[in-house]
Amino acid sequence: MASNVNRVALIGTGFVGSSYAFALLNQGVTEELVLIDLNKEKSEGDAMDLNHGLAFAPSPTKIWYGGYEDCNDADIVVICAGANQKPGETRLDLVAKNVRIFKTIVTDVMDSGFDGIFIVATNPVDILTYAVWKYSGLPQSRVIGSGTILDTARFRYLLGEHFKVDTRNVHAYIIGEHGDTELPVWSHADIGGVPILETMTDEQEKLEEIFVNVRDAAYHIINRKGATYYGIAMGLVRLTKAILHNEHSILTVSCHLAGEYGEDDVYIGVPAIVNRNGIQKVVELRLNEHEKKQFAHSANVLKETMFPFFKG
Q1: Where do the annotations place substrate binding (predicted)?
Q2: Is there a catalytic annotation at residue 52?
Q3: What is the C-alpha to C-alpha distance for residues 274 and 27, in angstroms, rounded to an integer?
Q4: Percent of the chain residues topping a pLDDT of 70
Q5: Cβ contacts of 133 within 8 Å, gap of 6 or more
Q6: Which of 52, 178, 256, 290 is catalytic?
Q7: Nearest Cα to 231, choosing from 157, 128, 143?
Q8: Is residue 7 pLDDT above 60, yes or no?
Q9: Which residue(s) pair with 258 in the sheet?
Q10: Got the DSSP string for 171-190?
Q11: Spatial contact of 115 and 203, defined as CB atoms under 8 Å apart
């Protein structure tokens, strides 16, 4: 890793990538940001546009359009490239298309001499994070997917709206696949230390409604505007900051399980401690029996989906 100047290399400057770059600049998280994309003109335009906002940024940031060779000195490579999710298409429908794309991307990054941390945002994020780990040869701790970081944020937002409490004071997790089999950990959800299940004992239908709106949020947004990008961009910046600032923050990201939660050899969204070295530790929540079954089902769906691509 670079020892004196933090550099983030962003691969893919579509809706998510450009939103991430804009949020990164606004929060002054890194000293250098290089944009890499097959669409050279678009990415050059993004770099120019972002640089014109430097006078209003909280700290100086060097921003430019570059190539895979610039990944050599990068602390973090963030992958937002790949085929987009179309209306009516699930995240898992994207597997075949994006696994092929990712093999080329990761090979080019590693050929540069990159030895930092990968952050993966492209869907289906859990499977593609596994692909990056396999193709890169890096330790599991240094390959991280955005996982359920956005789903958890959506969960906290809707609970905050329901209880009329600041979202930042709601403590609740969505874990599992970033997709249709994800699950809410109601057994550990609380506001100000008060378990949510204690305050909503007679509101089972409302609990389910809140979760369904979290799970299906992407579909609703895609049907209205074609893609989701602001929320995930903010989540990616939060993850980037946790790494570069060595925060030891607990975030629900996609990380490799090796026995935790009773699962093995799968990338899936769970709370984990994140610092300068990547994933320091998976936080293993004590799930109730229903949640254990849901989580096992989610992990099995991911394994069955990715098996044809990584068997043997």
Answers
A1: 85, 91, 123-126, 151-154, 228
A2: no
A3: 19
A4: 96
A5: 140, 143, 256, 267
A6: 178
A7: 157
A8: yes
A9: 264
A10: E--EEB-SSTT-EE-GGG-E
A11: no
Q: Are strands 7-11 and 32-36 parallel, antiparallel or unpaired?
A: parallel
CA separation for the pair 293, 291 (Å, rounded): 5
The position carrying tokens 């895609």 is 222
CA atoms within 13 A on the CB side of 78: 32
Binding-site annotation: residue ranges for substrate: 85, 91, 123-126, 151-154, 228
- The residue type found at 272 is A
- 192 pLDDT higher than 80: yes
With contact defined as beta carbons under 8 Å apart, do 117 and 144 qualify?
A: yes
List the binding residues for NAD(+).
16, 37, 42, 68, 82-83, 104, 121-123, 146
Contact 132, 102 (CB under 8 A): yes
Relative to beta strand 170-171, strand 76-79 is unpaired
| Alpha-carbon distances, residue 160 vs 101, 146, 172 (angstroms) | 39, 22, 11
pLDDT tops 60 at residue 84: yes
Rounded CA separation 145/256 (Å): 10
Q: Fill in the amino acid letter for 140.
A: Q
Q: What is the pLDDT of residue 2?
A: 44
What confidence score (pLDDT) does residue 204 get? 83
pTM listed for this prediction: 0.94
Using CA atoms, how far apart are residues 176 and 32, in angstroms rounded to an integer?
Answer: 33
